[in-house]
Amino acid sequence: MSDGIGKLDVIVIGAGLSGLASALLAVEAGKTVRVLEAHAKPGGRIRSVFDERTNAFVADLGPSWVWPAFQPVIGRWLEKLGLETFAQFDAGEAVLDYGPDQPAQTALIPGQEGNERVVGGSQALVDAMVSKLPQGMVLTSTPATAVQVMDAGVLVGAGNAVLTAGQVIVALPPRLALSSIDWKSALPGGLQDALGSMPTWMAPHAKVAVLYDRPFWREAGLSGRIASRAGPLVEAHDHCGSEGEPAALWGFIGLSPEARAALGDELEVHIRAQLKRCFGEAIPEPLAVHVEDWAKNRFVASPGDLSGPITHPDVGPEALREVYFDGRLCFAGAETAHQSPGLIEGAFDAAERVVLSLQIATK
Ligand SMILES: Cc1cc2nc3c(=O)[nH]c(=O)nc-3n(C[C@H](O)[C@H](O)[C@H](O)COP(=O)(O)OP(=O)(O)OC[C@H]3O[C@@H](n4cnc5c(N)ncnc54)[C@H](O)[C@@H]3O)c2cc1C
């Protein structure tokens, strides 16, 4: 039953934003912590394209935007992590795409108010937190498989290893927390219902980053936005670096996970054709097209996320934010948040909440 680590104060399951932020706050509160992460890298729904030569950040395949003007929690964390933001580029007309049978049109269309990008991409949030955690604290490629809560503490199984701690913070999308962990201690029915009914934001979606040698759309006075009824990209946006380079666009694919899977490699062919249809046959060929299909990520998407309606999560039931087993168990995924559930801000809001609850944990 021993993993050689000994008894910790806190085990965090999941090294996405909410897990990393929870771990950072727990360390700052003087707790001994380990973070178990299923993937080979921390970050969760933050996934990035890097320059092959320099390893510098190039594009987001997960979230791109924060809204610091409206999101006070984000504002605090950007300051804490020493990160800056810049406004999403939206100058010029957007392209309205009606499909191959009608010429594309351009028009000024209203943008989202206050959407900003983190300098260095959303990846910078992950890197900044990892750099503040003691080395070796995040155990990657280590999925938690079982949780048992006892009077004396919590046992967390990870393959053949068992870690022990005073408290466990489950920083996973709620549905995944319910379906992918073997709960040796029965969870209250109300909690199970709350976990199982909370959709995982963006889990059924796929995002594309298209890299170019120059931002030809800006040169033509266009914003880089596409609004399309035909697809495969139903919307696209400028995604150039803060100083205008490297040049990139990103877009959401408006096809179901099944339709994407059926297209396979053909999907990229359709995306390239759509970009020419929207911006003209003379545009340069992309340097690269990166597609991230989040529905295929079993450490993000649960079966219920793929078949249910795609709606932004409302604030979930209180049961998601309660502390269980005398303060030994609580949940921190972004979808559990009271503020901005499912969003980056929700991940930080959830982390702040669970770490306040550490103060009532019995060791
Ligand atoms: C395409 C896309 C676009 C988005 N756009 C935006 C945006 O513009 N603005 C915004 O605010 N938000 C956006 N979001 C949402 C944002 O990414 C999430 O709110 C945030 O990243 C969630 O962080 P999290 O830590 O709660 O969960 P996750 O990032 O899902 O982290 C959970 C972690 O747990 C790990 N894990 C899973 N199972 C186990 C296990 N059994 N044991 C150990 N580890 C496990 C996973 O590998 C993962 O690292 C977007 C998301 C996507 C996918």
Mean pLDDT: 93
Strand content: 25-35%
The number of helical runs is 10
Topology-level CATH name of the largest domain: FAD/NAD(P)-binding domain
Number of domains: 2
What is the CATH homologous superfamily assignment of the largest domain?
FAD/NAD(P)-binding domain
Task: Indicate the low-confidence ranges by residue numbers.
Answer: none
Task: Give the CA-based shape.
Answer: elongated
The separation of the N and C termini measures 19 Å
* Secondary structure tally: strands: 19
Structural class: alpha/beta
Helical content (DSSP H or I, runs of 4+): 25-40%
**Bound small-molecule species:** flavin-adenine dinucleotide
Main sheet summary:
8 strands, mixed
CATH class call of the largest domain: Alpha Beta
Order of SSEs: EHEEEHEEEEHEEEEHEHEHEEEHHEHEH
Compose a concise summary of this entry.
The chain is an alpha/beta fold and 363 residues long.
Description:
The chain is 25% helix and 25% strand. It is of the alpha/beta class. Strands 1, 2, 9, 10, 11, 12, 13 and 19 form an 8-stranded mixed sheet that branches. The longest helix is centred in the last third of the chain and has 15 residues, at 344-358. It is elongated and about 70 Å long. It binds flavin-adenine dinucleotide. Flavin-adenine dinucleotide (FAD) binds next to helix 1, helix 4 and helix 10.
Give a quick set of tags describing it.
2 domains; binds flavin-adenine dinucleotide; 7-stranded mixed β-sheet; alpha/beta
SSE layout and pairings?
Blueprint: E1 7-13, H1 17-28, E2 33-36, E3 48-50, E4 57-60, H2 72-81, E5 85-87, E6 93-97, E7 105-107, E8 116-118, H3 123-132, E9 138-139, E10 146-149, E11 154-158, E12 161-170, H4 174-180, E13 182-183, H5 189-196, E14 206-212, H6 216-219, E15 222-228, E16 233-238, E17 247-253, H7 257-263, H8 266-279, E18 288-293, H9 303-307, E19 329-331, H10 344-358
Parallel strand pairs: 1-2, 1-12, 2-9, 6-15, 10-13, 12-19
Antiparallel strand pairs: 3-4, 5-8, 6-7, 10-11, 11-12, 14-17, 14-18, 15-16, 16-17
Helix pairs in contact: 1-3, 1-10, 2-10, 4-5
The chain binds flavin-adenine dinucleotide.
